[in-house]
Input
Amino acid sequence: MAIVRWSPLWPFDEDFDRMMRDFPASEGTRRGFTPDIDLYQNDNSVVVETALAGVDSDDVDISIENDVLTIKGSMEKKSEVDDKDYWRKEVRSGSFYRQVALPTHVVGDQADAQFENGVLKITIPKAPQAKAKKITVKKSLKSR
Output
């Protein structure tokens, strides 16, 4: 049985967040977007991956403050033809912003970010106090 962090809105909070992130003011006027992320951890670090296809790595800003990761930037279409009679226009452009609380304390100034094939991967080392520590039980001399 897994331990799950309590939320007063569970099980609706993730669905609601996903629904509201891309909720447009009105159809066809969406100018920005919120990228989806995968967040996981291993023994030594927290890893965040997000697909940012078409985004130049120079246009991405990443910051970590108080164990909260912020990813923001912009993606502009280089050429857009105004005289096209669009039926749908869903290719994303404009600014993007995503902020997420990390599941444990991290050392933000030692984070590493790699951008490959349109996927941004951020690896953030866990703070020493956040790592699990193994404790060895010693045998008492009296019990012999």
